[in-house]
Fold:
Amino acid sequence: MLAFTLRRAVQAIGVMFAVGIIAFSMFRFAGDPVNQIVSIDTSAAEREAVRKSLGLDDPVPVQFVRYFADAAQFKFGVSYQFRQPVSTLLMERMPATLELAICATVLAMVFGILMGVYSALRRDTVLAKLFQAVSLIGISLPTFLIGILLIYLFAVILGWLPSFGRGEVVKLGWWTTGLLTLSGLKALIMPSITLGLFQMTLIMRLVRAEMLEVLRTDYIRFARARGLTTRAIHFGHALKNTLIPVITVAGLQFGSVIAFSIITETVFQWPGMGLLFVQAVQNVDIPIMAAYLLMVSLIFVTINLVVDILYTVVDPRLRSTFGRAV
Amino acid sequence: MSVRQGLFAMTLASVLALVISPASSQTLRYANQGDLKSLDPYSLNESTTHAHLGHVYQGLTARDKDLKIIPALAESWETPEPTRWRFHLRKGVKFHNGDPFTADDVVFSADRVRNKNSNMQTRLAPNVKVVKVDDYTVDFILPSPNPILHSAWDVWYIMDKKWAEENKAVEPTPVSATSPSYASLHENGTGPFIIESHQPGVKTVFKANPNYWGKMEGNLKEIIFTPIASDATRVAALLSGEVDVIEPVPIQDISRVDSSSNAQVLKAPELRTIFIGFDQTRDELLYSNIKGKNPFKDVRVREAFYKAIDIELIKTRVMRGLSTPSALMIAPELFALSKDFTRPKLDPDGAKKLLTEAGYPDGFEVTMDCPNDRYVNDAAICQAVVGMLARIGVKINLLAQPKAQYFAKVLKQGGYQTSFYMLGWTPSTMDSHNVMYDIMGCRNDPKSSRGEANLGGYCNKEFDAITDKVLVETDTAKRNQLIKQAYEISIKDWAYIPLHQQALAWGVSKKVNLPQRADNLVMFHWATKQE
Structure:
């Protein structure tokens, strides 16, 4: 087990390194950051000085080695736009993104499972068909459109919910949370729905399909034959067996929820890491772009690693395979 | 069924309970497309930043609602000799931390603004000597006369020497610094507002300064600024009443905002002039099918291009009426004699004839560089130009790119790699000399900064000679005549194709009364808000 974890960790470092190389070479084409730092009437001599002070004059391999040496020590440099360390900026923005991602995932799980179970058990009811229709919308409509539609309906026409921002936040140490104030909770509703709708749809369809599958298996028939109550069969046996793939997918999707929050955060001006990244791209703020990409790949790699390990915990059959393979 | 209905009712009730609480009186919520990145007034030479910081910091001079220069921290000034300016400072002014404002602060700010890390070095030439005469008098001694010395000083904000020294902020934060300086996260100005909290890129709260030396015209007690980059979200926030002012309103949403019951759009021509330029220096164009010669060196070709562009069509179709076609390279507001100039008439047939005379009866091919996220509808304007030039047989290959890539290619650092381009320019001094020197001056002297933003390299020695006279001429009437003479030369040369001034568009709640200044600085000390 330890050897397995170690091996996966080494692979993870390799993946991170590859992402770093790709990201770094992409920035060569992102434009000249100096133009974003200075105004248009700045003289060429001043521009040259800025360029030199940022180390943009050095050969590319030198810049690359310097970047990775710093990144390995969690030094991501200073943002060109904000003149603040990138790690500070990311830490400041992280609670917003994580809170949104967790809310969206919880929302997606709860409603996805409920709707999935319902539409599997009562396939022919009107409500089940409505759920199917909703899930089609969730899969086919792009996120930004859903966000704008929600804003138009609930903020502009009805005026119930705020159209942007996080509302009032409460500081708990370095963490900031919007969960403890009314305006914070209100501000969380639409972004969470927007971000979670796709996952909810996915989970609902997955639960429905799995549930239908499981209901046809022998042990359910046997349970019926034993005369167990419908409720016990559906929720005690069928649902429990449905959830294993659901948990896997939801776990893996959590990474993409964080990564895709870029769009949701832009639409709702949610002060998270995704918004920071989009602004960085517009302003060719390379330190932020690089750090963000590395961080997202770290999140993905970590989640994958955890899921791999959890598999062996959940399903003992896999444990022996890994044991032999190592 | 009843359980479900109950649940639904509960959900509905809880959603209804979350009705937005009304904004409190005299708190103004403001959303801008851009951020307030640093509070250091010398770290970014950009108008949105100047506007924000203009609430907390002040210059020796200020500009009123019509952009006229008025006294601010200096009560008055005079020029005893053409090369010596004497400023009499206002007494009894205190910085937000209580420090008194004196001549030492002006001398300190003059050094700091010219520091190598400052982004505002153009505000004061390095060879100007700044001398303290007494605590409330400062002399500026110039090597040669300069009638517009103070013209861009409304955004040269004066900082507190003692405060800067105590907090190790004597120099502006260098770009390569690894930690932000105290001054980029804190302010200590003399202005009508105090920054209560500042989270870069998220939210900034301004509170009225109870000890302000002047009388504030407006009635605001608090300004809450949030950047909202997404156009649709910004407009939605205004329409739903969550913010009171937004800048800018995208052109396509103007009628939507105007038709709403709680907000309107304030419109006015902006000072920036959008224009088209040609590469007139290379012997062969970089991006064209004509080899061995440069068609743009022929004045007839430039004239033909000018006359082929239907500026009224651009105004009505691309800009939806929100542009002011321009005959000059400077906004009419900034040059007293601009009424003497009119745009040559649209004449595609004449243009075609000119091209034939110049030896291009079938036209030619050239690439046009254009930004697509810098000016209002920039890429759409370029597309329209492509179509108009196609009518005289010129095939334009349009290369519209984001500003980051565009500027990297066409500016001096990119080697002026363009044959035909679109650009916008606002003279930071609000004066013609800046236009004549920076974008119309010859750029063949590598030691001089003249013409550095003259991407096409238009060059006329006679024009440059007048530019130099304009710099030192102190008589306003004579000076204006000289400027007029210069513009006439450049028009005869068909040096550039000025297009238009784009429009400012501010979305403002009907509860708010806010004067709109043509330089697009949103200033709230003039704003009033009723409940």
